[in-house]
């Protein structure tokens, strides 16, 4: 199962909207076996996730997770399902994510 986290500043409204866009994008791209959660910037349990989405302006705070094998994707327009899909396709992660 693919474990996905969506992070925003407060972990409430924005991340919930991002969660919906991320989930729809992943499903449309063929990733079906997934568990997706949302959180604020203070989440200290990032190692349990395979993929993390965050607004592009926060991405530098989470770069360290890539050293642990966690995939990280920054999103500029957090309400754009098209951008989520595009970033996933461009990431080179899709084949690996589908196998989780």
Strand count: 4
Helix/sheet category? alpha/beta
Spans of 5+ residues with little confidence (pLDDT < 50)? Answer: none
| Rg computed from alpha carbons, rounded to a whole number of angstroms | 12 Å
Mean pLDDT across all amino acids: 92
Instruction: Indicate the proportion of strand residues.
Output: 15-25%
The shape is: globular
* Tally of individual helices: 3
- Helix/strand order, N-terminal first: EHEEEHH
Cα-to-Cα separation, first versus last residue: 5 Å
Q: Order of strands across the biggest sheet? A: 2-1-3-4
Q: What share of residues is helical?
A: 25-40%
What can be said about the biggest beta sheet? 4 strands, parallel
Structure description:
By secondary structure, the protein is an alpha/beta fold. The protein is 32% helix and 22% strand. It contains 3 helices and 4 strands. It has helices at residues 13-28, 81-91, 94-98, and strands at 2-7, 34-39, 51-55, 71-75. The chain has a 4-stranded parallel beta sheet with strand order 2-1-3-4, with helices on one face. Strand 1, helix 1 (13-28) and strand 2 form a beta-alpha-beta unit. Helix 1 (13-28) crosses helix 2 (81-91). The radius of gyration is 12 Å and the shape is globular. The N and C termini lie close together (5 Å).
Annotation keywords:
alpha/beta, 4-stranded parallel beta sheet, 32% helix, globular
Question: Summed up, what is this model?
Answer:
With 100 residues, the chain is of the alpha/beta class. Helix content is 32%, strand content 22%. It has a 4-stranded parallel beta sheet with strand order 2-1-3-4, covered by helices on one side.
